[in-house]
């Protein structure tokens, strides 16, 4: 733990990621002088940082650490060889990782609600923050995405709760373990546990070990909210020293959703606590996985003392998170959706939810294998099943093929051949122009087009939206 004087200078290396940029904003609001550097300095993060009065410079240069800052925060996107990192080590400057700073400057003295799991962290964190805020509890929060109910991805409230997304990815080059170990969970949500992050974890057992450890950090008077029906998670729950409440659609779940009705507007369901009906709820997102996210958030709200009526209104007004099943627009009868799905389970759940919400028309799945795991062939067989709900599939190129390292690389051509063998309309189109040409030629009114990537996808989403708007205006 470190102490900082009120006017301390804090410098962030690799400042422009969502989490690092948000931390920079939080530190600035606390009155610190904040500077940063990054190789990719562009809107909207660069604009946000400038508006906060944070000086950001492009590239990395050891001279920026003269005179020495009081603290250097090292992002997990940088490693040895970075000139600023080397200067920090050579000069024995005080440095820390993002989760360390978050813990010592913001989480201590609060009641952290830490949201973890392979899928659903960002949406669930945004839901928790929104429900607590709507209920008048004025929470603090940090979300690794852009919530549509708040003007930015963080908030420093005066209330006792702090909702934070607990990432299992590593913390820094000098701290090759999960960020969530730092977050002092009083309430811990674990949505699910699957193999992911093949660049960090060797196998599912390594990920399971990390979640076992974070469950062991919850104090006895705390609470663990765990997704029901997850066999890996079920093995870990008996080791919890804190009370455990499960959530899901399964009959044995402590918090259960029943009488589910799906429409193009969203999901209606009844919330039950150990079989007792508490009320009817509406969520303007589709898919069983989003209902599970909502159940976890409702469990937090009820444990915090909010009423069923407060939570009904709060969930009804929840708008979601950008790039999480985000509706880009409906133009000429064509529905465009942008989604962050980058794991076979997330892809499958997203497509299944959209298929249930939109039962007519062709469902197009446009996928960019942008993550480190997707640069490898590890998930190819699972993607063959994941795309089953879609009618037409387009696979883009791997934007960073070097992330496969020595493993067998992902092959879009191989996956497309397998999809076609099952009778699916499928194409491997490496270039954005090819994708646009295919969509322009074949997408028709009534169709739903979902773009799925945790990267930028070359801006194909907005370009196709603008193409449709232009075509619609000319009609």
Question: Can you describe this structure in just a few lines?
Answer:
The protein has 14 helices and 23 strands. The protein is of the alpha/beta class.
Notes on the structure:
This protein is an alpha/beta fold and 475 residues long. The protein folds into 3 domains: 9-99, NAD(P)-binding Rossmann-like Domain (Rossmann fold, 3-Layer(aba) Sandwich); 109-316, Mur-like, catalytic domain (UDP-N-acetylmuramoyl-L-alanine:D-glutamate ligase, 3-Layer(aba) Sandwich), CATH 3.40.1190; 326-474, Mur ligase, C-terminal domain (Protein-Tyrosine Phosphatase, Chain A). The protein contains 14 helices and 23 strands. It has helices at residues 18-29, 45-51, 83-90, 98-107, 121-134, 204-215, 231-236, 288-303, 308-316, 344-357, 380-386, 412-421, 432-442, 460-474, and strands at residues 9-13, 33-38, 55-58, 71-74, 95-97, 111-116, 140-142, 154-155, 161-165, 170-172, 175-178, 187-190, 223-227, 244-248, 255-263, 266-273, 276-283, 326-331, 334-339, 363-367, 392-395, 425-428, 448-452. The strands form 4 sheets. Strands 8-7-9-6-12-13-14-15-16-17 form a 10-stranded mixed beta sheet, with helices on both faces. A 6-stranded mixed beta sheet has the order 18-19-23-20-21-22, sandwiched between helices. Helix 6 links the parallel strand 12 (187-190) and strand 13. Helix 5 (121-134) crosses helix 8 (288-303), helix 5 (121-134) packs across helix 9 (308-316) and helix 13 (432-442) packs parallel to helix 14. It is globular, with a radius of gyration of 22 Å. The N and C termini lie far apart (63 Å). The model has no long low-confidence stretch (mean pLDDT 90).
């Amino acid at each position: 733990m470190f102490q900082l004087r009120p006017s301390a200078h804090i410098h962030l290396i690799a400042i422009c990621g969502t989490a690092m940029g948000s931390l920079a904003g939080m530190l600035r609001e606390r009155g610190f002088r904040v500077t940063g550097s990054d190789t990719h300095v562009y809107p909207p993060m660069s604009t946000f940082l400038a508006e906060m009065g944070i000086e950001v410079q492009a590239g990395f240069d050891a001279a920026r650490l003269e005179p020495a800052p009081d603290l250097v925060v090292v992002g997990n996107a940088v490693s040895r060889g970075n000139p600023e990192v080397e200067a920090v080590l050579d000069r024995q400057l005080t440095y820390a990782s993002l989760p360390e700073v978050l813990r010592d400057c913001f989480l201590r003295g609060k009641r952290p609600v830490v949201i973890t799991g392979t899928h659903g962290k960002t949406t669930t964190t945004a839901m928790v923050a929104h429900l607590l805020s709507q209920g008048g509890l004025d929470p603090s929060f940090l979300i690794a995405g852009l919530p549509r109910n708040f003007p930015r991805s963080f908030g420093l409230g005066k209330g006792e709760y702090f909702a934070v997304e607990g990432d299992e990815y590593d913390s820094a080059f000098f701290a090759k373990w999960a960020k969530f170990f730092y977050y002092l969970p009083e309430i811990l949500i674990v949505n699910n546990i699957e193999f992911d992050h093949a660049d960090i974890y060797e196998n599912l057992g390594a990920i399971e070990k990390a979640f076992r450890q974070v469950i062991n950090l919850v104090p006895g008077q705390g609470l663990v909210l765990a997704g029901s029906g997850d066999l890996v998670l079920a093995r870990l729950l008996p080791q919890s020293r804190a009370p455990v409440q499960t959530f899901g659609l399964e009959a044995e779940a402590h918090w259960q959703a029943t009488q589910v009705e799906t429409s193009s507007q969203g999901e209606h369901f009844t919330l039950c606590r150990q079989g007792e009906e508490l009320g009817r709820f509406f969520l303007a997102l589709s898919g069983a996985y989003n209902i599970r996210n909502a159940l976890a958030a409702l469990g937090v709200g009820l444990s915090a003392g909010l009423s069923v009526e407060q939570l009904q209104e709060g969930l009804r007004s929840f708008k979601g998170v950008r790039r999480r099943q985000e509706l880009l627009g409906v133009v000429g009868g064509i529905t465009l959706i942008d989604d962050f799905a980058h794991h076979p389970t997330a892809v499958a759940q997203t497509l299944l939810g959209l298929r249930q919400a939109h039962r007519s028309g062709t469902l197009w799945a446009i996928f960019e294998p942008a993550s480190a795991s997707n640069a490898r062939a590890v998930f190819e067989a699972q993607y063959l099943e994941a795309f089953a709900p879609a009618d037409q599939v387009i696979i883009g190129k791997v934007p960073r093929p070097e992330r496969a390292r020595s493993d067998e690389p992902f092959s879009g051509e191989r996956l497309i051949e397998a999809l076609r063998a099952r009778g699916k309309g499928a194409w491997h189109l490496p270039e954005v122009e090819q994708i646009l040409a295919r969509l322009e030629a074949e997408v028709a009114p009534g169709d739903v087009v979902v773009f799925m990537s945790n990267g930028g996808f070359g801006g194909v989403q907005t370009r196709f939206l603008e193409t449709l708007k232009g075509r619609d205006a000319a009609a």
